[in-house]
Write a structure and sequence with these properties.
By secondary structure, this protein is of the alpha+beta class. Helices cover about 60% and strands about 10% of the residues. Helix 1 crosses helix 3, helix 3 packs antiparallel against helix 4 and helix 6 packs antiparallel against helix 7.
């Protein structure tokens, strides 16, 4: 959200363009604020809190004692067939043994405990010096209530975040700082409004629309300023986002997608009675918003700069020139979207390749078909954003030029008088 486009010198819009933008933006802001207040969820329930018999404690690995790995059922020492039609790999000998961990917080801070290393499939590898998280299970059977859970990533994540902030502020300066504030607003609305509202029983699609509108208004104006090009970008984003939602709704109905493709969506549907179709629509809208605002802001600013560089351009010339820039932008953005979805689904694609399923079955399956619908709906919304925003920006610049021409005709400046010739100086 909130790409750091440089607007250059800000030029005031015509009174007509300002009034037209306000006629759309003000009602939209009022309705969004009212819906945000109305749908804002109450304090989250304690149902999802951890069990009172379990607590997380930070620690540090001070020693590793490796032991021979026990033989698993149906698996030989050399990775023999396990009876499931495949060959399972042998256990990693670096994951078999015990870890000596020094607790760094809690009532037993400084105590060194010994707990088995996780050695199951997909378990992590731990080494001496690693900062870790240990689970304390009060009701655990046996004499050892501690269990090694995960790596402690808080320190590295703070370093990564600090590097990101420094890079954005160093390059973007004031605009980079406002972009970071806009990013914070986005996270607050997603974490404090959208997710709790959906869990509280609000329709996912309605919550996503309100959240997207609030993010769009707050971030675009905060990052790019209260200008006519920003207002045009907001209107273009709203129109394109509406079209994206309608296209996604139609495509989901035509392809009979339920939104249930994995264990997470199944549990949400079973345990919380959340509409998974509505959740799929909500994810498409939120995902499209991040790219739409980049396209619309770019088009609005591009048309404004073209009008300033070529004062003789009329509406048709401005639209054609801006559309050429938009087509080049869309071509690169489409590739970006497809690569992003492919990167996120890479493990799934690998499983399909290993399973040697026919391409037709893979494409028509619910998992891949859902990603295809998501990509197509988002791409069509992006394509529509270019002509919509470009036409609005060209119309606003044309009206602005006409208003400036009327002012020039009404106020004719006096012919400047020629200054008297200066007396020759000594140095002449």
């Amino acid at each position: 959200m909130g790409a750091g486009h440089d607007h250059g010198v800000r030029r005031p819009g015509s009174p007509g363009a300002v009034r037209a933008c306000l006629a759309v933006i003000v009602p939209l802001a009022v309705v969004t604020l009212a819906a945000l207040v109305w749908m804002w969820p109450d304090a989250p329930k304690a149902a999802g809190a951890p069990s009172p018999g379990m607590s997380k404690i930070h620690g540090k690995v001070v020693g590793i004692v490796l032991k021979p790995c026990p033989k698993q059922v149906g698996l030989g020492a050399e990775g023999e067939p396990n009876g499931t039609g495949g060959t399972a790999p042998p256990p990693d000998p670096r994951k078999c043994g015990d870890a000596q961990i020094e607790l760094t917080e809690g009532l037993e801070k400084g105590r060194v405990i010994t707990t088995p290393l996780p050695s199951g499939p997909g378990s992590q590898r731990f080494e001496t010096g690693d900062k870790v998280i240990v689970l304390h299970l009060a009701d655990a059977p046996g004499d050892n209530p501690y269990q090694l859970s995960d790596h402690d990533r808080s320190g590295p994540l703070w370093l990564v975040g600090a590097a990101f902030v420094l890079a954005v502020v160093a390059f973007g300066r004031w605009r980079g700082l406002t972009a970071l504030v806009g990013l914070a607003v986005t996270f607050v609305l997603l974490l404090k409004f959208l997710i709790p509202a959906v869990l509280a029983g609000e329709p996912p699609l309605a919550a996503a629309i309100v959240c997207a509108a609030a993010i769009m208004l707050a971030v675009l104006y905060l990052t790019h300023g209260f200008t006519v090009p920003t207002s045009i970008a907001v209107i273009g984003t709203l129109a394109s986002l509406t079209l994206t939602g309608l296209l996604a709704w139609a495509a989901i109905g035509l392809t009979h997608l339920s939104g249930i493709t994995d264990e997470s969506s199944f549990n949400l549907d079973l345990s919380y009675q959340i509409s998974t179709q509505g959740l799929l629509l909500a994810s498409i809208i939120i995902g499209s918003l991040g790219v739409l605002d980049d396209v619309t802001v770019t088009q609005a600013v591009t048309v404004g700069e073209l009008a300033h560089a070529n004062p003789a351009y009329r509406f048709a010339e401005l639209y054609r020139a801006g559309a050429r820039v938009g087509r080049a932008h869309i071509a690169s953005v489409i590739n970006t979207i497809i690569l992003a979805y492919a990167g996120a689904s890479l493990p799934l694609l690998l499983l399909f390749s290993i399973g040697r399923q026919p391409l037709g079955e893979v494409l028509t399956g619910s998992v891949v078909a859902q990603e295809i619908v998501r990509s197509v709906a988002g791409t069509l919304g992006l394509i529509a954003a270019v002509p919509i925003t470009t036409a609005l920006a060209a119309l606003a610049r044309t009206r602005n030029r006409e208003a400036e021409a009327e002012v020039v005709e009404e106020v004719k400046p006096e012919r400047p008088r020629r200054a008297p010739a200066a007396e020759p100086s000594f140095w002449d």
